[in-house]
Design goal:
The chain is mainly α and 186 residues long. Helix content is 74%, strand content 0%. α2 runs antiparallel to α3 and α4 runs antiparallel to α6.
Amino acid sequence: MNARLSVVAAVLALASCTGPSTPAATIYADPIAWANVYCNGTLRANMAGREMDPQNLADPAGYKESLLKVQAAAAEAYSESARQLDGLGPPGPDAVEAHKNLVQFVRDLADHATRYEARLRAIEPDAEFHANVEKMVASLTDLSTIERTQDIVKAFAVNPAYIDALQNAPKCVEIRDRTLANPPTN
């Protein structure tokens, strides 16, 4: 009987040692690295549009080709940014939900650019090209994007470290500097 009790005690002791483990501590992204990834995607998408050749405006086929390149570059920039942000994770425990919303928002921007590109491919580069592009843009423009952007910024505003990161990460500074040095003309 003592042998049986010894075996039961040993099994119970072993079971308690191999019981449920405590979850690993969550590692949060460095806020500057996180902001840099977000701003880099935005910068790349915006700069693609600024690098269009203005001489192509007079040539519908050239203009179409330029617009297609811009949309492809924007889709790729946003897709890469979403993947990297998703891999980094949130910058802190108070930003988990906001981070999830930001990643989805950036994915939506990539999808939006892809939809623009697909619709643009269907437009003939003829005399009506510019008017048809304006109609297409109007039909695809989603003003809720502005509201979503504002909501995401508000969600990150709960922690001054996130606002500081968005203001001081190198790629965020580059966006600000390029925008101030060369504001859009339209």
